[in-house]
Structure formats: structure tokens, C-alpha cells
Amino acid sequence: MDVKGEPKTIDLPTILAVEATDHGFYEGAPGPAIGPRMFGGQAVAQALLAACQEETHDRLPHSLHAYFLKAGSSDQPVSYRVTTLSEGRSFATRRVEGMQDDTMIFSMIASFHSPETGFEHTSPAPFDLDVSAAIEALDRWRERHSQANASPIVDRLQKRPIEIVPLDPGALFGAQAREPRTGVWMRMREPAGPDPLLQRALLAYASDMMFLRNAMLPHAIRPGSTKVQAASLDHAIYFHETPDFDHWHLYATESPWAGHARGLNRGHFYDESGRMVATVSQESLMRPKGEALERMRSA
């Protein structure tokens, strides 16, 4: 805690930075996590920055596809091995493998592209782009639901390096069934600067927050519930523009499908002007447990 009693801000750029240990090998430091597991967004962001270290022609990452192979430990560093699969004049493709204790816990392929001029179109944001209204609505909701301030998830979010303002606080903090469609505003608590590679890594980190819960909303469960075993299985990001995560971005998310103990989640990031800067998709494990599983078996 700082002198004002507020949660100490985590230096996310320092945590995400990777250090070269050998040719094609990098190490990422441990970082903030919920429980003993490494946060998936951290693995994605560190692996992306490791792949960026191999770039020599000013190409920017435009897409990545990652798989979480085993649960990583939140208190151990990760060794990342980067292999260049192809490299041309415009594109380069690299594979990144994350290891802990000689066990591969993470695998990702990232593609890089030189800036070019081309045709443009984009879908509009599905929610109002008014972060001030969202902040005011959140304050009013917390006044009416004082117990929410004592919720563990509220405490964890206050300690996260990404500031989050949900459009529907009940979907985030509550336990009632909701439509599988939400939105949150996100930005860095402390400015990180204009580096386009770091800014894309910050968005990659944030993209794994408040995401897999979309597929659970219609079923009146949330991550951490005793009714479900939940985990991210994979993660994909398409970078359309370089974000400026020092400022607010709307993360509009939805789940179009769930079944077979899995849920599909997808979303788009928009800046305050309505420009779409990234698209994210993820499949998650949402395996029923206990009474919830027994009810399904007996139905």
C-alpha cells in the first residue's frame, strides 16, 4: 500500500519485459496472478515481446495464435524460445514456446507485417463510447451494492495494473444469469509511453481479462465458482492498429456458443474515437462440477 492507503500500482511494462539469455531464448519474470496459476495474458504478452526482439525490419505484429498447454506457476519465471519460421519482404512468422522446469506450458505463432496502404472498413462499436457515463454508473451501482466493495474480485481489480470500468457491473460482480454480451473500459493505471510494440503487448495482456466469463453469464456462474472448472484453452489476437493503452479503450465482448464443457468468446477493442484497434477470440474450458454436473446428468 502507498502512503495514501491505495493499492500499490504494479509496474506492468517491467514485468512484461523479457531478457535475452541466449540466441533465440528469452526469460520473462513472474507477475501478478490470481492464485498459484500464471495469468494467461502475461504469457501472451511476454511471448509477443520475445518474438518482437527477433524483428530487424520494423515489421509490427498483426496477429497471434496461442495455446495454453499446462497451467504455469505464477511465482516462477518463464523461458521463451523463439524460432523464425518464415521471413519475406513484407511478412515474418515466428513460433514462441514457453517453458517452466523443462515443461512446455505455452505455444504461440505470431505474424509480423510491414505497414502498407489498403482498402478500409470497420464495424462500429456496439456500445456507447462514453467512458464518463460508465464511471458514473459504476459509482452509483457500488453505492447501491455496498457489499460489492468487499468482494474479492473488486479487491483484485483494484490491485491490477489495468484500470477497468464495466458497462454492466452486475455481470462482473453479480451471480445472476445475464446475456452473454458485455463491455468494459480499460486503460493503464500508469502511462507506459508510445512504443508500438509495448502498446500491443499491453493490449495482449489486457485481452485475457474479463473474457472467458462471457460464456458463463447465461448459466449464472462466474470464474472461481465451485460449480465450474474454468481455464483458457487458447487465445488469438488480430491487431488492426497500434493502440494507445495509456488512454481508455472499450473491450466489447460476447459468447456466441457454449457446449461440450467449452465456451467460445470473442471481442473487439475500440478507442474513444470508435476506431477498432484489435479483435480477440478464445475458447475456454467451463466444466460443470458438483451439484451442477449432477443436475445435468439427471436432466
Structure characterization notes:
This protein has 299 residues and is an alpha+beta fold. The protein folds into two domains: 115 residues, Thiol Ester Dehydrase, Chain A (Roll), CATH 3.10.129.10; 171 residues, Thiol Ester Dehydrase, Chain A, CATH 3.10.129.10. Helices cover 22% and strands 36% of the residues. It has seven helices and 13 strands. Strands 1, 2, 3, 4, 5, 6, 7, 8, 9, 10, 11, 12 and 13 form a 13-stranded antiparallel sheet that branches. A hairpin with a 4-residue loop joins strand 12 and strand 13. Helix 2 runs antiparallel to helix 6. The longest helix has 14 residues. It is globular, with a radius of gyration of 19 Å. The N terminus is likely disordered.
Task: Describe the structure concisely for a colleague.
22% of the residues lie in helices and 36% in strands. The protein is of the alpha+beta class and 299 residues long.
